[in-house]
Amino acid sequence: MTNSARSIAHFDLDAFFVNVECLKDSKLKGRPILIGGKSDRAVVASCSYEARRFGIHSAMPMKLARRLCPQATVISGDMESYSKYSRLVTDIIRDTVPRFEKSSIDEFYVDLTGMDKFFGTVQYSAELRRKITKETGLPISNGMAVNKLVSKVATDEAKPNGQLQIPFGNERNFLAPLPVEKLPMVGEKTGALLKQMGVRTIKTLSEIPVQMLQNLLGKNGSELWRRANGIDETPVVPYQEQKSISTESTFESDTIDIRFLQAQLVKMTEKIGFELRQQNKLTGCITVKIRYADFNTVSKQSVVTYTSADHLLLEKVRELFDKLYDRRLLVRLVGVRFSHLVPGNYQINLFEDSNETIKLYQAMDSLSNRFGRYMIMRASGLI
C-alpha cells in the first residue's frame, strides 16, 4: 500500500494522570500539579501544563521540581484509577473504529485508510475525540497524516486538547521548522550531539547525507534520516489485549513444601517479568495456576494496574497463590501468566520509586542480557 492511500490518526490523552486526578477532585483544575513520590529521592511521573511552565517535566527529580515550583500540589498517584480510565478509552475506540493500535497506556493509532469513501476522516476523528471526552471527561488530542510518525508529531503540536491534519505531500514542510527534539527517536544524547553539529531543526537534519548520519549514529542514522524526511511505512498493529507471556514448572516429585513452591514462583515471575521489560510491555492481568498430584488443575487471576516491575508482580503472585493453594494436597505443577499486555516502558511505579530503584532495574536487566537470566536473582528464589 502506498503512502498516498493511507490515513493514520494518532490520539493522545492530555496530561493523562493529572486529568484523571482532576476528575476525582475538581479543585485541582488550573493548578500546578506534580504526580509522583513525595520524598526527595522520588521522580515526577507526570505534571500539569501549569507546572510545565516552570520548566518541570516527567522523570525530573521531585526535589528539583518542588524547588522550581514551591506552590505545586504533589499527588502520590493512583495507577488503579489510571488503568481503569485507560481501559475505558480503549473500549470506546474499539467499539468505534475498524483497526487500532494501543501504543501505550494513553496513546492510540487508528487506521482510517479507505474510510473517505464513506465520510471524512477528519470529521470522524473529531467525533471520536468528542465521544471520548463526553464519556470519560478526559481531554484528548489528535493528529492525522499519511503515517504514524507524522501523525504523532502533529498530535504533539495540537496539544492540549486540539486536532491537526497534515495533508498528503506536506509531511516535510510540516516537520521542517520544528526543533530536532520534536522528532521521535531523538533523545537527550542524540539531541545534544546534533546541536553540537549545529543541527537544530528537522529541515537541517533532513538535508544531511544519509551516509554521514550512518557514520555518526550507526544503523540508527539511516532511520533518523527517513524520519526527518517524513518517511514511515510502519503499519498500525491491531490491538489484541489477550496476548500473554507465561511459564510453568512440573516438579520431579510432587510436593507440599511451601518454601520450595514460593521459591519457584519467584523464579518464574522474575523470568517472565524480564521478558516483559525486554519486549517493552506492561501487564494488566496476572494468573497463577496449580496442578495437584491428582491432576486437578485450578487457577486464579486478578486484573492489576499496568506494570512490569518485579516487586509489584511478585506481590500479586504471592497473594494469588495464598488464596489458591490447599495445603492438604501435594502439588505437581505451578505456573504464572501475564496477560492483557500493552506496549509501554517500566511505569516507574513512578509514584514511589526513586532514581535508585529505577537504575537498579536497569542494571539488573543489563546484567541479565550480558551474562544470562539467572546470573542475578532474588535470594527468595534460591532453594
Automatic annotation (TrEMBL):
GO CC terms, sorted: cytosol
Site (Substrate discrimination): F17
One GO MF term attached to the UniProt entry: magnesium ion binding
Keyword Secreted attributed: no
Matches recorded under Gene3D superfamilies: 3.30.70.270, 3.40.1170.60, 5' to 3' exonuclease, C-terminal subdomain (1.10.150.20), DNA polymerase, Y-family, little finger domain (3.30.1490.100)
SUPFAM superfamilies: DNA/RNA polymerases, Lesion bypass DNA polymerase (Y-family), little finger domain
Function text: Poorly processive, error-prone DNA polymerase involved in untargeted mutagenesis. Copies undamaged DNA at stalled replication forks, which arise in vivo from mismatched or misaligned primer ends. These misaligned primers can be extended by PolIV. Exhibits no 3'-5' exonuclease (proofreading) activity. May be involved in translesional synthesis, in conjunction with the beta clamp from PolIII.
Protein known as: DNA polymerase IV
